[in-house]
């Protein structure tokens, strides 16, 4: 798939913007705070309806404006799709594909798959489990409509259950209703656990090979799913934890407590890896994400690299750049030196300055 163009109206620091991207590598360069990441964010919203950094719709609308428009032209299998996203300050957003409004975010699925890579992703191994779950969920939600809806339902029920646990403190009679929530939590939770497990098994194989390559055959990276409970045990364990949950007013068992385990040799590198191992493994993980998407959608995703190259040493830069030659990439950076240095093929270059983008 290919993003042909992006138009913005009152989005972040862009009053009006129109850019035409090309196949291959597109570079956006410019000083800090000029609007480079904002462009990638708008692209991400077009593909997923959400900001990559979790910003609220109203925060993406230009200061002092009421609404904002993003129009993206995508080419996929020789077909064109125009995705229009209309962000509104106090109401939910409107989305249209080829001018036909869609009701559910999931109708957008499969038109524009995005892999977003930012410097924070390099900390995914050393940071807490919630970041690793977020990685898993963001990817699975782009690839699997059923997962998206199961996860939304699970989170909704989890919140309601937690609220109920608090209410029971004051109204003991509500205890009878708890099992109704438990039943639903288990139902959705089991589906989430099974999907995560299957996905990570496949991803684990890819990560292993990529990491072996990046590390020059020196390291074997093993990624495994570390579920808080299994699909089979969830119901029993949830029941067994009921007293504890009532005491602490929160749900202590379930996939909302899952994690991913990364091992090199016998060492759990989340805790015992060197900084270098953790960052290289994170790079391997992001690169396997690209492979995994390719495999599942039988097409290439669009890769967004936000200021990430300057974080990598030159051999890792080379590895990354060499392995993305066949997919459309939009790269942001502050200078062009790193590309000149690596004599990397660049297809289009833009300079971003204070909410204006100029083709170079
Ligand atoms: N809602 C908004 N309205 C107007 N400007 C915004 C909004 N949100 C962020 N900005 C501005 O966008 C700029 C940051 O853009 P960003 O894309 O993060 O820069 P960079 O080029 O460093 O990636 C800042 O100047 C910030 O004030
Ligand atoms: Mg930025």
Automatic annotation (TrEMBL):
SUPFAM superfamilies per UniProt: P-loop containing nucleoside triphosphate hydrolases
Localisation: Cytoplasm
An example molecular function term from Gene Ontology annotations: single-stranded DNA binding
UniProt binding sites for ATP: 30-37
Superkingdom of this protein's organism: Bacteria
GO cellular component, one term: cytoplasm
A Pfam entry, by short name: SMC_N
Any Gene Ontology biological process: DNA replication
Keywords, alphabetical: ATP-binding, Cytoplasm, DNA damage, DNA repair, DNA replication, DNA-binding, Nucleotide-binding, SOS response
Domain (RecF/RecN/SMC N-terminal) ranges: 3-355
Similarity annotation: Belongs to the RecF family.
Cited function: The RecF protein is involved in DNA metabolism; it is required for DNA replication and normal SOS inducibility. RecF binds preferentially to single-stranded, linear DNA. It also seems to bind ATP.
PANTHER family on file: DNA REPLICATION AND REPAIR PROTEIN RECF (PTHR32182:SF0)
Listed name of the protein: DNA replication and repair protein RecF
Gene source species: Eubacterium plexicaudatum ASF492
Taxonomic classification: Bacteria, Bacillati, Bacillota, Clostridia, Eubacteriales
